[in-house]
Amino acid sequence: MAGYEKYSYTANSVSIAMISEPEQVIFSVKNELKEGETVSASCSVYHSCPASPPVFNWSHSGENVFQQQQLDAGQWKATSTLTFNPTATSTLTFNPTHVDHEKNLQCSVRYKGGKHQTESKKLNVKYAPVNVKVEYKSEVKEGESVRMECSSDANPPASYEWHNETGDQLFHGKVYTLHNASRHTGALYCTAINTIARNKSSPVQLNVLHAPEIKNMSSCYAEADVVKCVCIAESRPASTVHFVLSDKVMPKAKVEKHGLVTIGTLQVEFGSSGFVRCFANNTQGSADLTLYFLVNSKMQNIYISIAIGAGGILVILLIAVGVKKCRGRSVDAATTALSTMKAAKDVEHPQYATTTTKRIEKTYDDDDCLGAVYANEPVYGNMETDLDDAIYANM
């Protein structure tokens, strides 16, 4: 266009302002989060290119929603053109857990042309106690004291209680000391408590070292023509078991171990001895028990027959002695009675004519000697009546 410099357009001038850096990212998230609840965090920037909006990236996984909003154009004077300043907003929705506590949540924005911005914020997540555990000495001798400490990961920090296996509370505090540990001490656990919830540790079963204990069920029994003896010992650590018969250690004993229980089995012949001794040993001490033999059925029958025979002989001897004594007493009583009667009659009746008296002598039955004396003796009712008739006839 020739002579363009002769014209002037100053009345219709336009001012253009340019910035080299985008405005700061607007980052928003709650100051205090609770584990498990749904939380939203937003990251916003201003830009002027709706056809090529910024790209957002989050450091945490979740549901990412992208939106754009056109703002009012009230900032311009005069005639406006198709100019608008949209706001790009990215919202992240996620469920925080205890692993998110004190971690940075980061939002990154990348513009067309290569510009890049980053904004982050440290999360404060409230959560119930996790990883509740008990630290203690792995092995303890019976009678010793055990120090146990409970710990957990919690926000806010947890307080602690100690319970036995039935749920009874033993102690309140982080450190618990169990006195006089025993093999019979049951399992226990600690509970961590805060304002969110309470959780407990796994049960703790103490490994109490103790000397062997030989169980009462240990015994000997007959089997065929031999005797088998079984010795059962319980201890921590497991015991060694051996048998002593007639002051000699029996090398052929069979020994089996089942955890803390050791079972020793010995087979011996009858007649070796009347008993065997079982010994159990471990690093904590020793124990022993005398096991007596039981008689097998064949020997038992022989012993029973001998006992019955001896008892029968004794009964026969006692009966014989009793009969002999009884017979002697019966004959003496009868003779004495007859003599007394005869003497009385001779004295009381000398003036009467003599008569003949029949004397009956009877042999008594051994089965009822006393009854025969009183029932059949002439003195007591079975006398002949010739004497009495003669007496009364001469009166």
From TrEMBL:
What residues form the membrane-spanning segments?
302-323
**Keyword entries, A-Z:** Membrane, Transmembrane, Transmembrane helix
Q: What residues does the Ig-like domain cover?
A: 22-124, 129-207
Q: Does the keyword Flavoprotein feature in the UniProt annotation?
A: no
Superkingdom as given in the UniProt entry: Eukaryota
Q: Which Pfam families is this protein grouped with?
A: Ig_2
User: Which chain positions lie within coiled-coil regions?
Assistant: none
**Name of the protein this chain belongs to:** Sialoadhesin-like
